[in-house]
Amino acid sequence: MLECLAAVKPIAIFVAGDPVPAAQQRRGGFEAMIRETVGAEYESWQILDLRTAETLPSPEQFAGAIVTGSASSVTDREAWTLRGESMLRDMVAAKLPLFGICYGHQMLGQALGGKVEKNPRGREIGTVRVEPLDDDELLSVKEPYLAQATHVDSVVTLPPSAHVLGRTALDPYAAVRFAEAAWGVQFHPEFDPDVMRDYIRTRADVLEQEGSDAQALLAAVRETPVSKSLLTRFVQQVRRVA
After folding, report:
1. pLDDT tens digits for 150-163?
2. Which of 129, 162, 174, 212 could lock onto 207 through a cystine, CB 3.0 to 4.6 A?
3. 105 has catalytic annotation
């Protein structure tokens, strides 16, 4: 009976930001993209916006949690980010399965004692190649795979005990196991090629100012099935733990 009760607990999606307008019009917010990507693999969800929540929940309310991306910067140390990081530390201590995406990845890194700064290698955007560095029950990938990425900040110093699982040309810590049940990826498993193109088009003027070729980035966008599968793998991991 206790196992049945645990199995119906929701997975929390902690919203830290909104997609660019074109992508949001196409597929909804980050939480909608995540749920759509997971599909029928899990049906019980609780959505909470970290930016506006007055109180944050305790770990025992959930089977697991996912933290979304955001256009905000962890380095701004806003009050809602600090509250969210405190919550994540409690969840890591409780060994609640966690999965951070982009901003969520950075929040986990900062919350657990690492450091986030503007990526010294520059903006990373478009379909990127991820080189796996180690095997893991969640990120059990042996061959390089493609992922959709868009970020300016990165985790530049890992917290103690973090283990790097993958890197890209511009980010040596693109996939990290931060703790026993906490993972983060600097890319976006929930993005499809159309959403990635929406981001590149939205950032086109800035990209040109930075010396990047937006048209070449658009032409290089590809499907990313391995990256996409990570959300389903995480949900399967949540089921096993529950």
Report:
1. 999 999 999 998 99
2. 212
3. no
Tell me whether residue 4 is one of the annotated catalytic residues: no
Q: Hey, what amino acid is at 103? A: Y
What pairing do the DSSP bridges indicate for beta strands 175-179 and 145-151? unpaired
Angle at 97 between CA 225 and CA 115, to 5 degrees: 85
Q: Do 57 and 48 meet the contact criterion of CB atoms below 8 Å apart?
A: yes
pLDDT at residue 135, rounded to an integer: 83
Beta strands in the chain (DSSP E): 11-15, 45-49, 64-67, 98-101, 115-118, 124-132, 145-151, 153-157, 163-167, 175-179, 182-185
pTM: 0.95
Tell me how crowded residue 194 is: count the other CB atoms within 10 A of its CB.
12
Please check the confidence at residue 4 and state whether its pLDDT lies above 50: no
Catalytic residue among 31, 85, 124, 190, which? 190
* Contact criterion met (CB below 8 Å) for 156 and 120: yes
Residue type at 107 in one-letter notation: M
181-235 per-position pLDDT tens digit: 999 999 999 999 999 999 999 999 999 999 999 999 999 999 999 999 999 999 9
- Phi, psi dihedrals of residue 23, rounded to the nearest 5°: -70, -40
| Higher-confidence position of 224 and 135 | 224
Which tokens belong to 41? Answer: 């693999």
Choose, from 31, 105, 124, 188, the residue flagged as catalytic.
188
What pLDDT is stored for residue 97 in this prediction?
97
Catalytic-labelled residue, pool 31, 102, 124, 151: 102
Written as one letter, the residue type at 220 is A
Rounded to whole angstroms, how far apart are CA atoms 176 and 184?
Answer: 5
